[in-house]
């Protein structure tokens, strides 16, 4: 049984199956490098700049700009690994497919199941953020959208309880939510409160994804162009309102405060892997996918750093714990015209992030279905629209329903562990295939830096630095997962000496693993529950119906 759990898909066979698939079972090849780059920007910038960047700045202060750089570096190592895989295995499925050809079926299923959570949760966050900007835009035009129809039940109830309890720090937003809870109609003892705009936009985007990739591509390119114009407007206009005094202290809550925003900041970068889900629809995937991944990551990192510095320079970081930080800072400095432009544009522009993730998730399901791990229905291609129709509809339902009723912070906690795990396996997969000589035909290869001695030397240096900063054992007791981090680094040092590993994928593994240790128990608990559900489904269905099992 252990052998069957780790049965691997052959790279050549995976490519051959895609090429031999008839037109009625294939997706349309219409995406070029520009389209793929814009799709990556659409996914990355959506929730990060327009929503979670406010929460990260509130926790870390101006120093969150450095956190963006640190997380971006971690993502660069991972993106290079993704790029090498994409040039080797130009097949839909992203990290799921890459794990299947390197580590086998069991880990591929775990990654695929984790990606389902990542993509769905990402879209729930973006949908909720979209709702906030939508109602703000309507207010700007003098139209009041009922608050109880644009907020989740938990948030409204917590605001109501805060007002009831009294206190001196209750702001206008909390009072407004409390009033919404009071005004909401009741069904028996239960208040009818839900986020209608979040569900509505998800349904509309799902419909667009169902109709076709050409239509989705054209809409995405237009929306991303508009979004980039808005961000440049914010940066250029905001520079004139920056007060350097707001950057002091630069890290008001210390390193701990900065790193507490890891989940939110990393969440803002994870979109680059969505490009690899569209491999089957790329005109030249082996050439264009690697280029698009690197390009979109560089562009987005520069924008994130600039926007975080502008935001924390315009207002004090303590004021940024809001759902729509970009519009808020300009309203705060009295520049209502720009705030209005941002609110209107964000309603349109943030839609592109929803579009990117709604494109990605059905294609992962489609690939898992083709491998026999999910029901055949998930792999069906619409005869007219050439999209995974059934999988797209199910994706829409799974995103729309939770976004109606749950709060944003709940979803941010759900996504990061699985994403880090997927990234680690992709980086490790590159090391494995390089060692086995299976990546020699890759059209793109990660620059090789021999880690034979460097990996161990860097570990000794890192241990010395950690020791010089304080009580190592106390630090390990507070974060027991650091034992796993150091043990993994030691194992990689030994294996690098033996197999001459490349250093950059090792950096990818270590940076992602370290970021995992910074996540709270809430993240881990939800990930463990989600993985447990996934394993039950795998052993109940996927293990027996796998195409490799039948062979």
From TrEMBL:
GO MF annotations in UniProt: amino acid transmembrane transporter activity
Keyword Nucleus appears in the UniProt entry: no
Domain spans labelled Cationic amino acid transporter C-terminal: 503-546
Alphabetical UniProt keywords: Membrane, Transmembrane, Transmembrane helix, Transport
Chief place of localization: membrane
Gene Ontology cellular component annotations, sorted alphabetically: membrane
Transmembrane stretches, start-end: 36-58, 64-83, 95-116, 192-213, 222-242, 254-272, 292-317, 337-360, 390-408, 414-434, 446-467, 479-497, 504-521, 527-543
Subcellular location: Membrane
InterPro entries assigned: AA/rel_permease1, CAT_C
N-terminal signal peptide: none
PANTHER family per the UniProt record, alphabetical: CATIONIC AMINO ACID TRANSPORTER 4 (PTHR43243:SF4), INNER MEMBRANE TRANSPORTER YGJI-RELATED (PTHR43243)
Protein's name according to its UniProt entry: Cationic amino acid transporter C-terminal domain-containing protein
Native species: Emticicia aquatilis
């Amino acid at each position: 049984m252990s052998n069957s759990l780790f049965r691997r898909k052959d790279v050549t066979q995976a490519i051959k199956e895609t090429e031999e698939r008839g037109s009625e079972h294939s997706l349309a090849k219409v995406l070029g490098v520009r389209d793929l780059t814009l799709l990556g920007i659409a996914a990355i910038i959506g929730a990060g700049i327009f929503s979670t960047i406010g929460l990260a700045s509130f926790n870390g202060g101006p120093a969150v700009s450095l956190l963006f750089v640190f997380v971006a570096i971690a993502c660069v190592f991972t993106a290079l690994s993704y790029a090498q895989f994409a040039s080797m295995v130009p097949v839909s499925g992203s990290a799921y497919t890459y794990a299947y050809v390197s580590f086998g079926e069991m880990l591929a299923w775990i990654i695929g199941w984790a990606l389902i959570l990542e993509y769905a949760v990402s879209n729930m966050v973006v949908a909720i953020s979209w709702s906030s900007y939508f109602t703000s835009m309507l207010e700007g035009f003098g139209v009041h959208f009922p608050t109880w129809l644009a907020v989740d039940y938990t948030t409204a109830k917590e605001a109501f309880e805060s007002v009831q309890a009294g206190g001196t720090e209750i702001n206008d937003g909390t009072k407004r939510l409390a009033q919404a809870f009071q005004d909401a109609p009741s069904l028996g003892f239960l208040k009818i409160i839900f986020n209608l705009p979040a569900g509505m936009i998800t349904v509309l985007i799902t419909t667009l994804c169902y109709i076709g990739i050409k239509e989705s591509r054209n809409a995405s390119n237009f929306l991303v162009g508009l979004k980039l114009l808005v961000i440049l407007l914010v940066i250029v206009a905001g520079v004139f309102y920056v007060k350097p005094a707001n950057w002091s202290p630069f890290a008001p809550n210390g390193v701990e405060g900065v790193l507490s925003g890891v989940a939110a900041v990393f969440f803002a970068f994870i979109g680059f892997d969505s490009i690899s889900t569209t491999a089957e629809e790329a005109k030249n995937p082996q050439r264009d996918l690697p280029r698009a991944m690197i390009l979109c990551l560089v562009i987005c990192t520069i924008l994130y750093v600039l926007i975080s510095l502008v935001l924390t320079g315009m207002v004090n970081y303590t004021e940024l714990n809001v759902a729509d930080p970009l519009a808020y800072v300009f309203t705060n400095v009295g520049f209502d015209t720009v705030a209005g432009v941002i609110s209107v544009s964000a309603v349109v522009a943030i839609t592109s992030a929803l579009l990117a993730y709604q494109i990605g998730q059905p294609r992962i399901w489609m690939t898992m279905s083709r491998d026999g791990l999910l029901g055949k229905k998930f792999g069906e291609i619409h005869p007219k629209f050439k999209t995974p129709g059934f999988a797209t509809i199910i994706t829409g339902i799974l995103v729309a329903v939770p976004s109606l009723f749950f709060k944003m912070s709940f979803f941010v906690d759900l996504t990061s562990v699985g994403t880090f795990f997927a990234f680690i396996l992709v980086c490790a997969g590159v090391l494995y295939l390089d060692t086995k000589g299976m990546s020699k035909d890759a059209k793109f290869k990660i620059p090789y830096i021999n880690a034979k001695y460097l990996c161990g030397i860097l570990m000794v240096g890192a241990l010395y630095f950690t020791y010089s900063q304080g009580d190592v054992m106390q630090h390990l007791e507070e974060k027991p997962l650091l034992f796993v981090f150091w043990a993994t680094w030691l194992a990689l040092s030994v294996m690098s000496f033996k197999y001459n590993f490349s250093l950059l994928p090792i950096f990818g593994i270590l940076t992602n693993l370290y970021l995992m240790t910074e996540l709270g128990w809430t993240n881990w608990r939800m990930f463990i529950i989600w993985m447990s559900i996934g394993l039950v489904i795998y052993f109940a269905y996927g293990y027996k119906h796998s195409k490799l099992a039948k062979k």
